[in-house]
Amino acid sequence: MDYIYDDQNIFAKILRGEIPNTTVYENEHALAFKDINPAAPVHVLVIPKGAYVSLDHFARDASPAEQVGFLQAVAEVCRLSDVEEGFRAISNTRTHGVQDVPHYHMHIIGGKQLGRMMPH
Ligand code: 5GP
């Protein structure tokens, strides 16, 4: 699979400081900031600083240090947010997954009781 990164996407602009964001946590490899249109009281987006379009791209090509740095940012977001009762982590991917922004991001959503994602 070819992953083609568009450096004009909105999260690339946030990483370059061209668009403001409300930062929750940042380290060498990842940035976490509040979603502009929150779906719940806690809605944070965690993104790698590298040019990866999706979870599968990041999982395939990111270095171990980038992957560890990203997951450390997820851990810090959870520590800093009101998610002791739980949360949902979502990475929408490409067309079927309804991904709007083509820079890999993980949504951390919580702070209230969420509905089931899938019927069972
Ligand atoms: P996706 O549909 O790609 O999984 O999610 C993209 C998310 O990015 C959406 O939840 C949307 O609200 C958020 N978003 C889009 N543009 C901006 C922006 O400029 N700033 C912030 N903080 N969030 C954004």
TrEMBL record:
Enzyme active site: 105
Key words of the record: Hydrolase
Alphabetized Pfam families for the sequence: HIT (PF01230)
UniProt domain HIT: residue ranges: 10-119
Motif (Histidine triad motif): 103-107
GO molecular function, one term: hydrolase activity
Alphabetical list of PANTHER family matching this protein: HISTIDINE TRIAD HIT PROTEIN
Protein name (Swiss-Prot/TrEMBL): Diadenosine tetraphosphate (Ap4A) HIT family hydrolase
Species for this entry: Yoonia sediminilitoris
